[in-house]
Amino acid sequence: xxxxxxxxxxxxxxxxxxxxxxxxxxxxxxxxxxxxxxxxxxxxxxxxxxxxxxxxxxxxxxxxxxxxxxxxxxxxxxxxxxxxxxxxxxxxxxxxxxxxxxxxxxxxxxxxxxxxxxxxxxxxxxxxxxxxxxxxxxxxxxxxxxxxxxxxxxxxxxxxxxxxxxxxxxxxxxxxxxxxxxxxxxxxxxxxxxxxxxxxxx
Amino acid sequence: xxxxxxxxxxxxxxxxxxxxxxxxxxxxxxxxxxxxxxxxxxxxxxxxxxxxxxxxxxxxxxxxxxxxxxxxxxxxxxxxxxxxxxxxxxxxxxxxxxxxxxxxxxxxxxxxxxxxxxxxxxxxxxxxxxxxxxxxxxxxxxxxxxxxxxxxxxxxxxxxxxxxxxxxxxxxxxxxxxxxxxxxxxxxxxxxxxxxxxxxxxxxxxxxxxxxxxxxxxxxxxxxxxxxxxxxxxxxxxxxxxxxxxxxxxxxxxxxxxxxxxxxxxxxxxxxxxxxxxxxxxxxxxxxxxxxxxxxxxxxxxxxxxxxxxxxxxxxxxxxxxxxxxxxxxxxxxxxxxxxxxxxxxxxxxxxxxxxxxxxxxxx
Lengths: 202, 364
Known about the structure:
By secondary structure, chain A is an all-alpha fold. Chain A is 65% helix and 0% strand. Chain B has ten helices and eleven strands.
């Protein structure tokens, strides 16, 4: 199987990366291993970036593996006509994130874990002003993300961290395009307002 | 929004951009992929891996009743294959249904006086809550949650249906979380209500004598009655017409007609001669597909045949070698009815067993 070896390295996790493959591998075809090697090499790096942001680096590798194992199990029911493979894959991953978080801890503590704990209060004595602002902003954002509803957080981070288009997010979450677009609009406006407020307060 | 994008870009950036090796993860995934036997696709048919002797017996049974293009039906076991599993072709849905229909040669065992037809349904059903959308926010996303809950229903039907029947409903322990707009910890677990439990008796299967409309002995429109099955047509085309008429209030789409057909089978009361024709009728519906082989319900294995709809896929599980109706299954489609349920999630299934027993309350 392996003309394809190793994992391509790319500085993924940039918010504007879109890697929707024109010709996704035939997941229902005879050569399962090659198809999944291709799928893995096309998406694993970026997927890991997304998952590391959501559940931390230590759990990310397991969830990457789980995502592909679930995809393997469900490959016969995957219909390329209904959803681009990327949306399908991130839909699986996002469900696993939700399960993971709920398994790990419960309720509100879990929600905080989703985006990491709030940063500690910055030590003004040792940091330049811009760094302080950035840290405070990160803490505000992390807290705000934790307070979002699952579907809002998923839509936002799938576009921002995973670089999915709203249509791919819709496919991933099993919703329609316009719902996702209006949700994104609402969530982004809300978070932007929070950050602006924070900057002015500071 | 630049500020928000920048802040998101910076948040956990180190973790997100780490180039830690993924080789071990890749190896794990590809090992699992290699362990799956490849199903080469031939026109609209699939080959599915089946490694158990029972499957070989099943194929033999299939071949015994249908020898057409035998070489197309069975692929030679690949001696060099790593798993050395013989590959058995997954036929088209109409082929399976017709084979299953052909295989029903036995008539139902008649009941002697004092004997009962015992029907046991072991099922997992979706139960949950959908909250109303606030009147001032009609566009708010739906909220609620869904569980999958296990139960057993048993029924004893006497030789003379005018005599006393019995049914027993038993809630079982199984409970799975299918999703919700809130965390599992915040969703109420489903309650066991009066009608979920208990043993009831009644002539003609009238277990709830106060319910309306009143149950009438011998009512030919009542699925509990042998008269209902006796009155149905036996010609597959006529059965299709019946399924369309019966679902005309819901548009008669093939998915709806198939669902109706599955629900009638689920009663476990359909006589063998009608069941064979019923399968042939379902094979005539547009979009009927064989989705999976080797689906195991309570230790019995069969082929899943069904129709995909946008919201759900409805499947019957039948044994094409014997024509047995093993059970049925419902899976969430691309746009599940409950938006928090992931597409592809099994949202319900049941296995149905019927046998003749010598007394009310006996199970074997």
